[in-house]
Predict the structure.
Amino acid sequence: MSMATGQKNHPLVIGIGELLWDLLPGGRQLGGAPANFAFHAHQLGARAAVISRIGRDELGQEVLARFEAMGLPTAAIQTDATAATGTVEVTLSEAGVPQFIIRNQVAWDHLAAEESALSLVREADAICFGSLAQRTPAARTVIQRLLAAASPNSLRVFDVNLRQQFYSPDLIESSLHLANVLKLNDAELPVLSGMFGLTGSTREVITQLAGAFNLQVVALTRGEHGSLIFSAAQWSEQKPKPVIVADTVGAGDAFTAALVTGLLMQMSLDEVHGLASDVARFVCSQPGAMPVLPPEFRRRIQYLRKV
């Protein structure tokens, strides 16, 4: 599989889209899939950044302070003079599965294709984006313009991330055409199957998606049923392992971060899949989307690249 490698030991990965505060039962947690993705990729040894927009308000200032504390750059975080920093009310089921109520018309809905953002995208080895941040026509246009500026050798990861009513078949299809890597979960796969008239077993549907949209990698997470990855006509499957779940917020984003970082570090498909599964499982065991990862995960990447 052809991919950029940037600075060999420290590829540049970028999350584009929503940046927000998850208002959880236990308190406020910084979140948004692109931010979760970038933070975990950073912990695993990548250079990471987020292209998003916050309000000129107290919550926005708190975002910047948190980014600095986490070691993430803030240069690509835009500030909106009128729209508020995004927030999401999160409730958890008994199994720790989140339900979201996402506030409309917030700062990240007004993302702009600033030259600093375009320049960063051109340098990126991998870019992760989803459907939620494209919920307004203006933001969708900007995100797709940014993706069009990316290197043809970069990984362009569409993490479907379906939320509420904020998606359409047209949006999903156009995003798939912009991507070369697809990450989705077992609730999202049937939705895409219905959209595109795909039938057959799980593996047959994934193969059809990969062929229809020229995808290099398709990763399916299945919660307690493990995960599947398809790449270059090869399959990798991870069986489920037991975990005491605190909540599942951000676990999929952590999986994507480990997958992307491992691929850029030239790990084999099974190696990167094992790492991604273990990182996601650890995040499930901790409250919130951005726990500090044990150093062993980063060491595994470094070790596996040597052997």
